[in-house]
Amino acid sequence: MSEGLYRYDAIGRMQDRQLHPKETPDIGKYLRLGPLGTALLPSKLPRVLLVDELDKSDIDLPNDLLDIF
Fold this sequence. Notes:
Order of helices and strands: HEHEHH
Structural class: mainly alpha
Largest sheet: 2 strands, antiparallel
Shape: elongated
Strand order of the largest sheet: 1-2
Distance between the termini: 13 Å
Number of helices: 4
Number of strands: 2
Strand content: 5-15%
Oligomer: single chain
Radius of gyration: 16 Å
């Protein structure tokens, strides 16, 4: 579910930390919004998110979506 909401580049953060141990970069540099995360961004126009084949997804996905919405 988190890949739909966002992706976190832990390896990139670890590499940057090893190259620059005294710097503490913003964690936002390592986060990329996924389709669901993008759909939840504030916008002037309404957005639609199509979730297809929910019955074939992970058993927890419907409840995870309810938690987000």
